[in-house]
Write a structure and sequence with these properties.
Radius of gyration: 16 Å
Number of helices: 6
Mean pLDDT: 82
Strand content: 15-25%
Order of helices and strands: EHHEEHHEEHEHE
Shape: globular
Low-confidence stretches: 125-130, 153-157
Number of strands: 7
Distance between the termini: 37 Å
Amino acid sequence: MFKRILFPTDFSDPSMKVLDYIPALRGAGTKEVVLVHVIDRKDVALVASGGRGFLGTVPDQETETQRRLREEIQHKVIDIRRALEKQGVEVIVRVPIGSPGKEIVNTADAEGVSLIVIGSHGRSDIRERLLGTVSEYVIKNAHQPVLVIKRDVAAQK
């Protein structure tokens, strides 16, 4: 039923809890996971500016900062891919740049997934909100069913 699922992650603890559910999803027929990490367009602008706004940037520093960000993302994606493959699923990786919610929904449609499995909160982890803004956007706009994995209750305290 859920042969191909989408696993969006921003590498936060709540989003990484999805890994704990892969064995159960394999039992429901999951054979393939599309792993997606969206590089937020706002973060790209900040990195490109060296964190100082658009004035006074140094081209060499921009290149170095961007290279470090790319390498950090690459290492994290490789680690997650290996963890998923150890659980017996094939993995496809996508790293689009844009608005996270929109890119997750677009990737789900483009990849023909049958389920999106997303953490309830991401990096912002605003404790007062029932859901994170990206999760909320995906739930409201996805054309596929969305399974939301709650953050740990103990982590909220």
